């Protein structure tokens, strides 16, 4: 029996695969086989042919950043004439537009801006919750939280507690990249270690928030480092349960390849088949994470659709304004109606969910969104 078959058999028997098993899969080209196994494992967890999506919006509230990641085409250094911080009213207006189309999630994410005091975040969260109590703030990645911790002089737990009290509900997994310090030192030396990222997630869980995890591959990392990334996420998720944190931990895992255009890091663009292989392996390895999200913002809707047969059960968010990714040369934009169309074309039933993955509305055949975002270029 081939090594790959042995590992897939093990996974299909419901046994956990090891770091070494994961490397066997990563080094194999048997994408179809892995896809079939991942699809089977996904169907056991999600037997209904439903693919969820969220109606939400990204708000890149500032592009000023002093982390200077080599792969980032979005940031401007402090003092740059092209740096911005969105006025509060503009942020509130964008949220109003989201609410107007039935959206419920805001992903505020920006550069790590050293000029914004901790009070800025508390104030904007309070203003948002005051005006839009039904909105879920799924905002600020670990690097931003770590900067807030430094600026506030508080501990990590205190920082997150204050943010939670002001209205922060959930943390996105941005900045996970590869959770191993050899790669992190090469691509984003100032962004903190992988343990800083993970400690932030655990502190969020301790304070009652749920989070997601991401993985960006294609920085020249080894297969062992990719496998380690997944193992570390899986172990942290186990810990969340074992220690009884008041949170379900990571609710979803999202992976995409590094986008090299307009960045200082020269790498070949990764192939779509590699993406399908990665999402399949994510599903097989991460047996304690319920949802795998398609990354149509980077891969385009066609590959997004295909990923729904490779272990993926969620089509992500409408996420208008994905400036960080689009600044690096990726400009796919879809609105609600297109998401419904793509999910149906893949033979599945679309359902709107909230940030906690509760289903809010199933779109039965022939049903459409009453209101929609206007497409932007
Ligand atoms: S990826 Fe984020 S942290 Fe890194 S330079 Fe860009 S905005 Fe800053």
UniProtKB/TrEMBL annotation:
It is an enzyme of class 1 (oxidoreductase). (3R)-3-methyl-D-ornithine binds at residues 141, 295, 317. S-adenosyl-L-methionine binds at residues 71, 177. Pathway: Quinol/quinone metabolism; menaquinone biosynthesis. Keywords: 4Fe-4S, Iron, Iron-sulfur, Menaquinone biosynthesis, Metal-binding, Oxidoreductase, S-adenosyl-L-methionine. InterPro entries: Aldolase_TIM, CofH/MnqC-like_C, Cyclic_DHFL_synthase_mqnC, Elp3/MiaA/NifB-like_rSAM, F420, FO_synthase_su2, rSAM, rSAM_sf. Its EC number is 1.21.98.1. GO terms for molecular function: 4 iron, 4 sulfur cluster binding; 7,8-didemethyl-8-hydroxy-5-deazariboflavin synthase activity; iron ion binding; oxidoreductase activity, acting on X-H and Y-H to form an X-Y bond; transferase activity, transferring alkyl or aryl (other than methyl) groups. It catalyses: dehypoxanthine futalosine + S-adenosyl-L-methionine = cyclic dehypoxanthinylfutalosinate + 5'-deoxyadenosine + L-methionine + H(+). PROSITE patterns: RADICAL_SAM. Binds 1 [4Fe-4S] cluster. The cluster is coordinated with 3 cysteines and an exchangeable S-adenosyl-L-methionine. GO terms for biological process: menaquinone biosynthetic process. Its cofactor is [4Fe-4S] cluster. Residues 51-290 form the Radical SAM core domain. [4Fe-4S] cluster binds at residues 65, 69, 72. Belongs to the radical SAM superfamily. MqnC family. Radical SAM enzyme that catalyzes the cyclization of dehypoxanthine futalosine (DHFL) into cyclic dehypoxanthine futalosine (CDHFL), a step in the biosynthesis of menaquinone (MK, vitamin K2). This is Cyclic dehypoxanthine futalosine synthase.
């Amino acid at each position: 029996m081939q090594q790959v078959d042995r590992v897939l058999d093990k996974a299909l028997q419901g046994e956990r695969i090891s770091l070494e098993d994961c490397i066997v899969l990563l080094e194999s080209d048997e994408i179809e086989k892995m896809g079939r196994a991942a699809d089977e494992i996904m169907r056991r967890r999600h037997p209904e042919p439903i693919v969820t999506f969220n109606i939400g919006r990204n708000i890149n509230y500032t592009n000023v950043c002093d982390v200077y990641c080599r792969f980032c085409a979005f940031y401007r250094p402090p003092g740059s004439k092209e740096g911005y911080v969105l006025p509060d009213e503009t942020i509130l207006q964008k949220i109003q537009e989201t609410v107007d189309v039935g959206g419920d999630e805001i992903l505020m994410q920006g550069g790590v801006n050293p000029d914004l005091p901790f009070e800025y975040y508390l104030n904007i969260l309070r203003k948002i919750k005051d005006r839009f109590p039904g909105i879920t703030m799924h905002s600020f990645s670990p690097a931003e939280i770590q900067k807030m911790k430094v600026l506030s002089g508080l501990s990590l737990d205190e920082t997150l507690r204050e943010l939670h009290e002001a209205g922060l509900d959930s943390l996105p997994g941005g900045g996970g990249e590869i959770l191993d310090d050899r790669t992190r030192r090469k691509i984003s030396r100032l962004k903190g270690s992988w343990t800083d990222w993970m400690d932030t997630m655990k502190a969020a869980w301790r304070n009652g928030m749920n989070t997601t995890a991401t993985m960006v591959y294609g920085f020249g990392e080894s297969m062992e480092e990719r496998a380690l990334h997944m193992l570390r996420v899986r172990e942290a998720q186990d810990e969340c349960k074992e220690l009884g944190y008041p949170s379900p931990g990571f609710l979803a895992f999202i992976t995409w390849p590094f986008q090299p255009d307009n960045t200082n890091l020269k790498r070949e663009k990764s192939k779509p088949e590699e993406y399908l292989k990665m999402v399949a392996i994510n599903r097989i390895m991460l047996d304690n994470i319920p949802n795998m999200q398609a990354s149509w913002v980077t891969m385009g809707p066609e590959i997004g659709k295909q990923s729904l047969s490779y272990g993926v059960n969620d089509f992500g968010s409408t996420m208008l304004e994905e400036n960080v990714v689009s600044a690096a040369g990726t400009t796919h934009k879809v609105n609600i109606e297109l998401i419904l169309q793509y999910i149906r074309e893949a033979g599945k039933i679309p359902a709107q969910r909230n940030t906690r993955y509760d289903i809010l509305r199933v779109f039965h055949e022939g049903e459409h969104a009453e209101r929609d975002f206007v497409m932007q270029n």
